[in-house]
């Protein structure tokens, strides 16, 4: 089995990844940064997010497993003092995986013949800072509303605990293959109207945004930002691809949500 390590720049992460690398050498794993079967990330959720983008080209075949050097995250399973157990699990790996949905983004830029595709693990947003963002919103090809406000966020189930949650979106169990649309400060009054609540989009549907002709939109795809080009339209749907995690043990999703957002001190 070919493994790679992807660590963030923190001191703890550097130490842990050096230790892991040595263990891999001792246990005869092949270290292959370019074409790994398994990527072990060391850091936080943001680290896994970066690793996902680094390995996007081989996303169909690669599996991820994550060590957290801070708090327990949504993509991270193993504590830094458990790396011996992790190596043992990797040695007896039999290809076990859980797959979670990804967001497929297709952008038509003005003046470009070919559409540009992006893949997101958490979410994509379209925003405008200088003035109100005005965009037509279509669901499944049918006109739904004219949105006015700061922006819109389209998130995956695993991204629902990130930006989406800050925007008042629901936390979605990642076994559900749906997308969620949340508003960023919509304008609602007698003249302008939007739905004003988050929407959960069925797997067979897609969202199309046709923004007013302006050149100062900001498009985000997870931690990446794109701007400066005039956007004609964006189409969001659930990707045919998914992300694979090497799951050697189970942790209930709602347990993770509780740990991240509520804490246990008032429980029995
Ligand atoms: P960052 O600014 O370092 O991350 C923001 C926070 O989001 C970090 O605490 C990160 O956890 C956490 N996070 C990332 N993915 C998550 C997930 N799926 N569920 C719960 N928490 C998650 O930037 P980053 O680490 O590169 O992450 C980029 C993400 O930041 C974007 O995809 C977006 O979701 C999020 N973001 C949120 C807001 C907001 O809430 N207002 C605004 C912009 C971006 P770690 O500390 O473990 O990395
Ligand atoms: Mn981060």
Automatic annotation (TrEMBL):
It catalyses: NAD(+) + ATP = ADP + NADP(+) + H(+). SUPFAM superfamilies: NAD kinase/diacylglycerol kinase-like (SSF111331). One of its GO terms (biological process) is NADP+ biosynthetic process. Keywords: ATP-binding, Cytoplasm, Kinase, NAD, NADP, Nucleotide-binding, Transferase. NAD(+) binds at residues 45-46, 122-123, 148, 150, 161-166. Its EC number is 2.7.1.23. It comes from the Bacteria. It is found in: Cytoplasm. InterPro entries: ATP-NAD_kinase_N, ATP-NAD_kinase_PpnK-typ_C, NAD/diacylglycerol_kinase_sf, NADK. Its cofactor is a divalent metal cation. Belongs to the NAD kinase family. HAMAP family: NAD_kinase. PANTHER family: NAD KINASE. This is NAD kinase. It comes from Liquorilactobacillus vini DSM 20605. The gene is nadK.
């Amino acid at each position: 089995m070919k493994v790679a390590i992807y660590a963030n720049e923190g001191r703890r992460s550097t130490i842990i990844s050096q230790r892991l690398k040595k263990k891999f050498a001792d246990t005869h794993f092949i270290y292959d940064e370019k074409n790994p079967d398994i990527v072990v990330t060391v850091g936080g959720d943001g680290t896994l997010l970066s690793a996902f983008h680094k390995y996007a080209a081989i996303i169909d075949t690669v599996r991820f497993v994550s060590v957290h050097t801070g708090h327990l995250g949504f993509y991270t399973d193993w504590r830094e003092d458990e790396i011996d157990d992790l190596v043992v699990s990797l040695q007896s790996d039999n290809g076990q995986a859980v797959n979670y949905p990804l967001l497929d983004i297709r952008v038509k830029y003005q003046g470009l013949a070919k559409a540009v595709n992006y893949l997101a693990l958490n979410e994509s947003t379209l925003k405008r800072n200088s003035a109100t963002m005005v965009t037509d919103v279509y669901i499944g090809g049918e006109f739904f509303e004219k949105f006015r406000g700061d922006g819109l966020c389209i998130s995956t189930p695993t991204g629902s605990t990130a930006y989406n949650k800050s925007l008042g979106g629901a936390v979605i169990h990642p076994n559900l293959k749906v997308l969620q649309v949340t508003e960023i400060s919509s304008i609602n009054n007698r003249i302008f109207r939007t739905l004003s609540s988050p929407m959960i989009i069925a797997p067979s549907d897609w969202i199309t945004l046709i923004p007013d002709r302006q050149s100062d939109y900001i498009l985000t795809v997870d931690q990446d930002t794109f701007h400066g080009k005039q956007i004609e339209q964006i189409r969001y749907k659930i990707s045919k691809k998914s992300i694979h995690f090497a799951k050697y043990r189970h942790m209930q999703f709602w347990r993770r949500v509780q740990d991240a957002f509520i804490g246990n001190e008032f429980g029995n």
